[in-house]
Amino acid sequence: TTLQSSIGQVTLDSYVMNASGPRCSSAEELHLIGRSNAAAIVTKSCTILPREGNAEPRYRDLELGAIQSMGLPNLGYNAYLDLVPELLEHNKPVVVSISGLSLADNETMVKAFDGSDASLLEVNFSCPNIAGKPQTAYDFEQVENSLTRLCSLTDKPLGIKLAPYFDMSHFDSMAEILNRFPIAFISTINSIGNTLIIDPQTERAVIKPKGGFGGLCGQYVKPIGLANVHAFRQRLRDDIDIVGVGGIYNGTDAFEYALAGASAVQVATSFQQQGEGCFQRINDELAALLEAKGYASIKEVIGQLKAF
Ligand code: RRO
């Protein structure tokens, strides 16, 4: 059974990589992903300047996932530019996530990484955790304006990380915009932004930033991730690949994302909670499931969700 897949013409040796998010900010963390069974190395979203991120406590594990408001802790884009060559020595694609605090910042960084050997660029339009900065993905005019500017700046396969949508009219509107641009992929979903977990004992929210509002992650969000992948697979051009994200803990979760239309998946909360062994485990569980079901390749499954 082969898990070989591809995103934007870039070949992946397996189906599972890390999501931009946990354990991918420092050089040490990125090399650990490089040495693991992950299909690619995805960097933490970068900004122009290094950031410490939001005040602590800013992360809490929950029964079915996690809530966090990390606030973009990262080394600044110049550090990731410097790291690309040594990360490529792991012989797997390097995906650089870019999350400027303005369109001008994103333009600067897309140009800079266009001049690097990064394999894929993922522009994050959906960080929910910066006070005073709305999520670009929820502002359709801004998405269109940003893509007009960013797509002209690189020949590299460019993707965007989307926020979850919850209305069919939003899937329709966003897909109509995306189909007019030469993007290579979307990654969906980011965490569900601005959720609130309250501890009844302390009578407080469980995290501090933004009055306790943070991104919900893990098992809670899988049905929303599956719906977003499938809704976009039904609406996007065939040459726009979809990377599925949201609540993938095991091979069965990954298989469901393949049925919905994901060409690869990214894992955040499971990686945060279990470490880099999760990539080998989930890939192995997926391969065993495909074999048991009589599939020779993950490609036979992608987008094949059956109708009633
Ligand atoms: O760093 C974060 O707080 C963060 C980001 Br940039 C993002 O895109 N999604 C998220 O849940 N957290």
Structure characterization notes:
- The chain contains nine helices and 16 strands.
- With 308 residues, it is an alpha/beta fold.
- It has a single domain, classed as TIM Barrel (Alpha-Beta Barrel).
- The strands form four sheets. Strands 3-16-15-10-9-8-7-4 form an eight-stranded parallel β-sheet.
- β9, α5 and β10 form a beta-alpha-beta unit.
- α1 runs parallel beside α2 (77-88) and α4 (140-150) runs parallel beside α5 (168-178).
- The radius of gyration is 18 Å and the shape is globular.
- The protein starts with a strand and ends in a 15-residue tail after the last helix.
- The model has no long low-confidence stretch (mean pLDDT 98).
- The site of ligand RRO has 14 residues, from loops.
- Ligand RRO binds at residues 45, 69-72, 99, 124, 126-129, 190-191, 215.
Question: What characterizes the major β-sheet?
Answer: 8 strands, parallel
Structural class: alpha/beta
Nearest-integer average pLDDT: 98
Gap between N and C termini: 28 Å
Helix content: 25-40%
CATH class: Alpha Beta
Bin the strand percentage.
15-25%
The count of β-strands is: 16
Name the strands of the widest sheet in spatial order.
Answer: 3-16-15-10-9-8-7-4
Number of helical segments with 4 or more residues: 9
